[in-house]
Automatic annotation (TrEMBL):
Coiled coil feature spans: none
Transmembrane stretches, start-end: 12-32, 44-77
Keywords: Membrane, Transmembrane, Transmembrane helix
Protein name per Swiss-Prot or TrEMBL: DUF502 domain-containing protein
Tree of life domain: Bacteria
InterPro entries assigned: COV1-like (IPR007462)
Length: 193
């Protein structure tokens, strides 16, 4: 009975939580859109009209940001707001996370690597950039240093270390599968892994 219950929970929980998360996001955005429609005095014609309005506004914003003057004005406003330390910290973090979703035209530099430890064991890491930032490269000893992220299990956080490229063992393993392996401490093994 315990195994059957565990098997049911293991299979249903991820699906139910994922559907709940996306449904909650839909309801929240639909409510925001309905609020905007109410402000201009328009009644929502159908369920999801608010969501469609928000999605449309985001699409139009994307089009507007492709126009140089609007992007310049937004950049200027962003630079002015970045003068406030608390805003800079919060906004910078959210912008960095959002930029992970938008990789248009940028090569995927994340490569899975193994790094040998002093005791002979290996740690799975990810090259996140092809080179270390210039201030760090200037401070490091001579060599080809790259930032490697060592993801911590069951956490979004990780530790970034600078490792010589010669000390890395490149692994033909997708970033997504390797990240899933690291996040779950190896419990989640995909078929590709």
């Amino acid at each position: 009975m315990k195994n059957t219950l565990t098997r049911g929970l293991t299979n249903l929980l991820p699906m139910v939580l994922s559907i709940w998360l996306f449904w909650s996001l839909f309801i929240s955005l639909d409510g925001l859109g309905k609020l905007l429609l109410d402000i201009v005095g328009v009644k929502a014609a159908f369920v999801g009209a608010g969501f469609c309005l928000v999605a449309g506004l985001v699409f139009v914003a994307g089009l507007l940001f492709s126009v140089s003057p609007i992007a310049w004005v937004y950049g200027w406003i962003e630079n002015q707001l970045m003068k406030f330390p608390l805003f800079k910290s919060v906004y910078g973090s959210i912008r960095d996370i959002a930029s992970l979703m938008n990789r248009d035209g940028q090569p995927k530099t994340q490569k899975t690597v193994l790094v040998k430890q002093a005791n002979g064991s290996f740690v799975v890491g990810f090259i996140m950039s092809d080179s270390a930032p210039q201030p760090l490269a200037d401070a490091l000893p001579e060599g080809d240093w790259v930032p490697v992220l060592f993801q911590l299990s069951y956490q979004i956080a990780g530790v970034t270390s600078l490792v010589k490229r010669d000390d890395l063992i490149f692994v033909d393993w997708s970033f997504e599968d390797a990240m899933r392996f690291n996040l779950t401490a190896g419990i989640s093994n995909s078929k590709e892994a």
